Amino acid sequence: MGRKRIELNDRIEKLSEKYMAMTGMNLDELTNKALKFYIVNQLSSHKVKRVLRKDDSESTKYADQIFQNSLEDLSSY
User: Fold this and answer.
1) Is 2 helix (H, G, I), strand (E, B) or coil?
2) Which of 2, 32, 3 is CA-nearest to residue 16?
3) Which of 32, 42, 41, 24 is nearest to 6 (CA)?
4) d(CA 46, CA 42)
């Protein structure tokens, strides 16, 4: 798993802290969930699958899981 460094602006930091306190998530979990939600909503399923395609079934399986989880997340609202 890749490691990245991010800097939150003051408003996002306050919102993140409140959300993490309410949900019990840590910053890594919140960041991964938020990025997945944002990317899936910005790209078409075809584009996401193309980006993840590396000639292995694991990438396709991962892309399918992203969309399935995204649909489940949306249905919980």
Assistant:
1) coil
2) 32
3) 32
4) 12
Higher pLDDT, 63 or 75: 63
43 Cβ neighbours under 8 A, 6+ residues apart:
51
Question: Tell me: the pLDDT tens digits for 6-56?
Answer: 899 999 999 999 999 999 999 999 999 998 888 888 877 777 777 777 655
| Cβ neighbours of residue 52 closer than 8 Å, sequence gap 6 or more | 59, 60, 62, 63
d(CA 37, CA 70): 7
